Amino acid sequence: MRRLLFLPIILFCSGIFADQIPIPKLAHRVTDLTSTLNEEQVSSLEEKLKTFEKRKGSQVVLVIIPTTGEETIEQYSIRLAEDWKIGRKGTADGVIFLVAKDDRKMRFEIGRGLEGAIPDVISKRIQLEYVRPLFKEGKYYEGIDQGIDKILGLIDGEILPEPSSTSYESSSETVDDQFGLYIGALVAIGIAVGFIFKKLFSLLQAGLATYVGYWVGGLLGFSLEVMLPLLVIFFILLCIIYIAAKNPGSGGGGWSSGSSWTSFDSSDSGWSSSSSSDSFSGGGGDFSGGGSSSDW
Fold this sequence. Notes:
single chain, alpha/beta, Diaminopimelate Epimerase, Chain A, domain 1, 2 domains, five-stranded mixed beta sheet, two-stranded antiparallel sheet, 8 helices
């Protein structure tokens, strides 16, 4: 009887003192540290989760790691959830799909706000009926894709707060829109300046100015064949000035903050992961251990 009483304590302490696998840095919605998915598959899943977040507001991420080490997948998953804080703050509508490939284990970690929409028994059923059969056949992408689709379908049926503009949208889509406006303005300015100079030079060459004006007109009165290359050069210079102003401090071959590289290296495990361009971060959501785990 005493052994049964002390068993939970022993398991708890073993989780605390076990060597812990480092948590990778959060940079994207899809983190594959095993190279299980190819680039096209990663891009497809990333775009699907990004589009869903923009429409619904909920954050769903996929993490594939080799192993959770001496920790159980539940222990590692909750550490990951507490570190990444997937889901909106106050709404807690985040989901983590964790796959420990070498351990042949998987888990859905469900945020507090979605525990009603995705009960533990339902998330377990998704794993057993849709994901596990495909994983057993080595079809990891197909299993992951089906599992994610089922989770997104359940979230879609839940009434959640309307999504607001995320930091990702404001730092990418808005900048892209502004870039288009700037380019349009530069083109208009270039054309206007070209017409003004052409008209001015025509007046000067026509003798409607003083001798000095005529002399200046003769000196600056270029033909149309010369004017066009000059306008192109002028436009290119304006673009260079715009790009330099848009990315201050990016000289010397360095990367600007908008295209930084993040990496995770562990001397114990030898994992490495790098990602670029679009930044992504959790919204502050919290987890209470809801979800389910299974193997294959």
